[in-house]
């Protein structure tokens, strides 16, 4: 319809512009004769152009219903009757969806987009919503967590637009999420814990003993081998796990770690 309005052809499809007479009376040599009406010829040209535009925009199944209509007004009238009942049913179903849709687990962005989609469907069916109606539907589907926003909107003297309501809902959601993160130990709390207040903070990983390598525990009383090199008279402490690799290196004596370190 917008292209037809722009071309000032809307009256043709609605039937507001009636076709002129096909012929007119013209006096020729003192006699009245009938001649083709130029206005009718012009009307036919315009009407057939609109008719071609309408037929080109229809699906094959729909075109079967209007293929024999000679004028654009007849095509438009038949299509209106054909889709009137479907549009009414669609409008009713969409309003029911608006009234029953709840935010629940949806984010504010997803919930608002869903409600606006329903509003667009109503507009397409010829029954657009007013702003206050859409706002009422959106408020009705909010969780009880958004009661402060609901109360503030209802208490307003001037009506609120859907876009403004959306901004307030987004701000409230963001603020609520920040509070939840701070009270339950969000990312900032977890980072602080890993830097010194969490379990095991300030200690070496399990299985390490004061930088001396991976072992079987952290006790200083675990048994180790004290190896004495026969040539250089050097003593060094090794874990029992590598004793077999030092076989033949020198003398070995088993003792607790703390005793070996005092030698």
Total count of helical runs of at least 4 residues = 11
The domain tally reads 3
Number of strands: 5
From the spread of the alpha carbons, the general shape counts as elongated
Radius of gyration, CA atoms, in whole angstroms = 43 Å
Strand order of the largest sheet: 4-3-5
Fraction of residues in helices?
40-55%
Your description of this structure?
A hairpin with a 2-residue loop joins strand 1 and strand 2 (31-36). The chain has three domains: 2-82, no CATH class; 101-184; 223-262. The protein is mostly helical. It is 53% helix and 11% strand. Strands 4-3-5 form a three-stranded antiparallel β-sheet. Helix 3 packs parallel to helix 5 (72-100) and helix 5 (72-100) runs antiparallel to helix 6.
Keywords:
263 residues, mainly alpha, 3-stranded antiparallel beta sheet, two-stranded antiparallel sheet, 5 strands
Summarize the structure.
By secondary structure, the chain is mostly helical. It is 53% helix and 11% strand.
Itemize the secondary structure elements and their pairings.
Layout: H1 2-6, H2 10-14, E1 23-28, E2 31-36, H3 38-56, H4 60-66, H5 72-100, H6 108-124, H7 131-140, H8 147-154, H9 162-184, H10 187-197, E3 223-228, E4 235-238, E5 251-256, H11 257-262
Antiparallel strand pairs: 1-2, 3-4, 3-5
Helix pairs in contact: 3-5, 5-6
